[in-house]
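Hello, quick one for you while I still have it in my head. My current little project is about how a certain protein chain folds up. You're getting the sequence in one-letter code plus the fold written as tokens. Would you mind checking whether the tokens look sensible for this chain? Here's the protein in full, and shout if anything looks odd to you:
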Amino acid sequence: MTTRRRLLAALPALSLAACATGRIGGRGSDLTIATFNIWHDQGDWPARLPLIEATLRGANADVIGLQEVLQDGDTLPNQARTLADRLGMQMVFSSVDAEDQPRRYGNALLTRLSILDHDWTRLEPLDDYRTAQRIRCRMADGTVIDIANTHFHHTAEGGAIRARQIAHLLDWLPDDATPLILMGDLNAPLDNPEMAPLRARFSEALRAVHPDRADRTTLNTALGHRSVQIDHILYEAGAFTPVEAAIVGDQPVGEVWPSDHFAKLARFRTA
């Protein structure tokens, strides 16, 4: 059987079993969040796209944060827009590349919730070309929340750069007591010294629900990465209670992996 035929045959099962440690679902007043670095157009994007879609569809998330999103003129439509259209969600994209450029790279937030406001910023230092973005949403029960998504500096020795990005991000986020969830590819374990300001304000969903999985990798070691958890869903403990959390998108179909990262999911109840 060809690789493409194996992919098509496996998609229904992948969608139902997208969560490796138990599918996360639920509507009502619960809030389900997913974060996924989709590895732009590396590897075989046409083969990876349905695997990413199946992972996110199985997550049934209210809000999805994507990192490493690419659009490239007529050859590659905006990847987040493609996923949002397939999933029936709204999409907000942020990039340091000008809107009139054919090639743009950045982050995206997808949601089914009502968007009341959205914003983004270019993080310092400006020559690292990183962004943070935020949407303010209204949940079905009327609760107003902020969801932020970002992608920090990537080198292991770049703690000082990440520290500047964290300081800028925390200064930029609204200070009006709106409950906040922050997610993304932070490119460092939470125990790193530069992450201390985040640890002081937020808790992390997976380590709160499953402390024994706090060090499980979100980088795909099968594609040559080191084993380390650098993708996080952070929440304000006074506003949210995590009830489920998992790492997903961590299985190949045939020889194709969804991404060089695994996705993270968390389901919360509001205080």
